Amino acid sequence: MRFSGLRVLREGLRGNRGWRPHWRDASPRPAYDAIIIGGGGHGLATAYYLAKKHGAQRIAVLEKGYLGGGNIGRNTTIVRANYLLPGNSEFYSHSLKLWEGMEEELNYNVMHSQRGQIVLFHDDGQRDAAIRRGNAMRNQGDDAELLSVADLRRMVPYLDYDQARFPIRGGLLQRRAGTARHDAVAWGYARAASDLGVDLIQNCEVTGVDVKDGAVRGVQTTRGAIAAPKVGIIVAGRSSQVAAMAGMRLPIESHVLQAFVTEGLKPCLDHVISFGMGHFYISQSDKGGLVFGGDLDFYASYAARGNLPMAEHVMEAGMTLMPMIGKAKVLRSWGGIMDMTPDGSPIIDRTSVEGLYVDCGWCYGGFKAVPASGDCMAHLMALDRPHEAAKRFRLDRFRTGRGLMDEEGTGSQHNLH
Ligand SMILES: Cc1cc2nc3c(=O)[nH]c(=O)nc-3n(C[C@H](O)[C@H](O)[C@H](O)COP(=O)(O)OP(=O)(O)OC[C@H]3O[C@@H](n4cnc5c(N)ncnc54)[C@H](O)[C@@H]3O)c2cc1C
Hints:
six-stranded mixed β-sheet, alpha/beta, FAD/NAD(P)-binding domain, single chain, binds flavin-adenine dinucleotide, 10 helices, eight-stranded mixed β-sheet, D-Amino Acid Oxidase, Chain A, domain 2
């Protein structure tokens, strides 16, 4: 079933009776060539690229809940490629290019909107850091523009520029950055993967990983045992728990990250804005709600909801930056479980168990990584060698100390990233 304007018109005229389910609701078979554990954005994209680019047949995605019910449907939807360090820089650049072709590739409207992201700076040191980052982005082939206060006053007049404590001195703009509808990304990849023959199996929790003679043989699930010579663990906040089923200890801590949305308002915020003096970012959804978030709840947890002190902290940052949002009513808040690595950068690698691969450590920034992560993980699983764009995302960097990518410059402590 292809989507098009004509199709929408025809269905409208025929009472919308011709639409079909987006994907097949498959039941598990006894064996596959490859199993993906986790039906989030990264797992679904991996399955899609395995089938599409590498012609893999007999692939299953095993999801313990429903597709899109994890972080892929809980994030604040920011898509950008403004990383500084080698490793992250080329990877996120690759990802943004895939975003730009995603809707055509999947024939699915993911509402990708390149409305631009502005990261504000508030003192000279931050200005220097922004210039350096902007140069790195341009060297990578991506766009970056330095904005003066006058530019900002014209573009985003509702910020509090004269605030005595955190005066705004300028911003770094990436015009190609923006937002997308998060769960549509999961649905788009799910639909495209299913069309290529991938079995998407919901309500199927993996409870064990079968390893024999140093190689993976398959998994145990709540719907029975399933054999496979290749298994990818792509479960975000649950990474350390699932890896432990294969006897591995990952350098991951799980923390809650909250997000908030207000009642629908008339269009008032054209960009994604990130505050430089506190962790606060905001955009406006197409429905009109202001979508915003801030820091992690700084303790390890598997609860997909947050606590009030952090909610208060985020509201305070928002009010400091743009006092006008104090009039908006917050409708909902929620949390997601973040897989935090010590250097704040991800892992896409083989493990010590033959045929077992991990894709994790996305911290609070894995939504924008979905297409490139899927592409690179599929490449690794199909060819057993890393994709050029992800070759630094090695698991052993935390053991050897070589090749760490401390993007935030906060040191090797999970909860500081
Ligand atoms: C509040 C919030 C805001 C965020 N904002 C942004 C942002 O603006 N930009 C950005 O780039 N990133 C953002 N992120 C991060 C991003 O959402 C995540 O890094 C990314 O979605 C994680 O990858 P995923 O989509 O595959 O994860 P998930 O959707 O969580 O997928 C993992 C899946 O694995 C399944 N699973 C777990 N255990 C098992 C098991 N034993 N068996 C079978 N299945 C299992 C889970 O049910 C889940 O569906 C944010 C996250 C949150 C929570």
